Write a sequence for this structure.
């Protein structure tokens, strides 16, 4: 059974066709990269997969379950998590507090007062363990707005992983990072559990070809190519439209 199936999915905004009959499937544990020029429809596709935008036509299934019209919270409960192009942290809360809130959403007391949740030592222990695992314990007490942008991107990734998702959508996680920060984030992605399925939008070709098991290429809202990194490198239409012909 495929982890995620996108079947003839289209999206229009009034008279603007953003995506047209996009279809592909992703195997459990696969690292699938989506590349394409600006305006190709990559983030629009993510918005539909996560439930932020309704699908105009087509079907989306998650481990065999139709989630085409499911609300975002149900998709999250079924094991779908997502990061965004812009960091989604609470800037005036500490890194630890941001992580506690993410963990709290998976907890039976999900919407109780934060001050009461401070009594839940298991959540704090889990948060501390996650920060330690990813080498960020030293910024646990810093407010999110006080840490570097690269660190914010790393914390975003940890927040998305807090609920141990089955499928993780990463929307340009290396955008705006320095070379050293890219190496750090790519390392974190490489260290994700092997059974976690990853669908990732990426603008950096070196990163995309390094991480991907398979690559899907979008152009003007259409899927123009799909294959292994070597197949995409040698695809003439991709070379001409996206990578740049010699």
């Amino acid at each position: 059974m495929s982890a995620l199936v996108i079947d003839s999915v289209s999206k229009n905004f009034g008279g603007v066709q953003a995506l047209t009959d996009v279809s592909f499937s992703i195997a459990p544990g696969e690292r699938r990269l989506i590349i394409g020029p600006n305006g190709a429809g990559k983030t629009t596709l993510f918005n539909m997969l996560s439930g932020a935008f309704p699908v105009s036509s087509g079907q989306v299934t998650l481990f065999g379950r139709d989630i085409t019209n499911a609300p975002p919270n149900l998709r999250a409960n079924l094991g779908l998590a997502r990061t965004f192009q812009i960091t989604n942290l609470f800037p005036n809360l500490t890194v630890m507090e941001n992580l506690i809130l993410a963990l709290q959403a998976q907890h039976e007391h999900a919407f109780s007062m934060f001050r009461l949740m401070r009594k839940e030592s298991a959540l704090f222990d889990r948060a501390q363990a996650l920060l330690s695992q990813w080498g960020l314990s030293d910024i646990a007490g810093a407010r999110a707005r006080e840490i570097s942008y690269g660190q914010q991107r790393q914390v975003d990734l940890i927040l998305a992983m807090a609920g141990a998702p089955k499928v993780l959508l990463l929307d340009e996680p290396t955008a705006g990072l320095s070379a050293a920060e890219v190496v750090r984030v790519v390392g974190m992605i490489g260290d994700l559990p092997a059974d976690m399925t990853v669908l990732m939008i990426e603008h950096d070709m070196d990163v995309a070809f390094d991480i991907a098991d398979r690559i899907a290429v979008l152009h003007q809202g259409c899927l123009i190519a799909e294959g292994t990194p070597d197949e995409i490198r040698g695809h003439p239409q991709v070379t001409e439209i996206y990578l740049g012909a010699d």
Observations:
- The two ends are 40 Å apart (CA to CA).
- The mean pLDDT is 89.
